[in-house]
Amino acid sequence: MNLQQMPAYIRAAGQLRADFQLAGSRTQAMSIFETGGLRLRCPHVARGCEGVIINTGGGIAGGDHASYDFEIGAGAQVTLTTQSAEKIYRAESNPAQVDVTLRAGDGADVEWLPQETILFDGARLQRRLDVDMEDTSRLTMLETVIYGRIAMGETHLEGSLRDRWRIRRGRRLLFAEEMRLDGDLTGLLDRPALGQGARASALFVHIAPDAEARIEAIRASLSDAPCQWGASAFNGMALVRLLSPSPEKVRAAIVALLQNFRGRDAPRVWQ
Length: 271
Fold this sequence. Notes:
mainly beta
């Protein structure tokens, strides 16, 4: 059967929902709903609660849909990460879809720190990230995209990536971003004004009452970074963008940034 003729019910449709609340002095996952190959595990950590997302399917193919929905209650401290890099396989027809929704209550401290998303040749991905946070909550988000399997000799990449971010604080839109790359991704990324040969990109966002005051420390932690980067702060946010032809150099810069910014190592599964 041709993949273009494959019925929708054959494609994977995974959902993962969790509700994190402060119970006494510790944050706990009060409820977890898992279906379609997505799982959440919460290993013991010294600070807050760490949720590790596992895709038992090993990746996401065209037509698959992964949905993540996390509620973080008042005062809770939660780090959400992934067991490994997420692989986006070739799509013959419909794109893969990934939807992420985060809600952070008063005084909540939320980290969204997945490992890299790797686009295979022919991959088509539509991703949506929606965040609703209170004025007193804190949010740290990181997303890294690797364009092609460079170690496998995949030097030319065709496909598409549509990335949509919406972050609301106190029910007001604070940050909105739309990125769309279609067709010859290698050629687009080779353009000096777009990627200058980049094969990996990352966006780091921190939103908190003291976010702007931390920008100089962020810049200092990146002073020896082995990749291109730019950092800015405004309107209660600190943003960092990183680019490099080498995914390894972007990861090294991110690990150093996280270690200095958090005052502790990146999540254990990153090691």
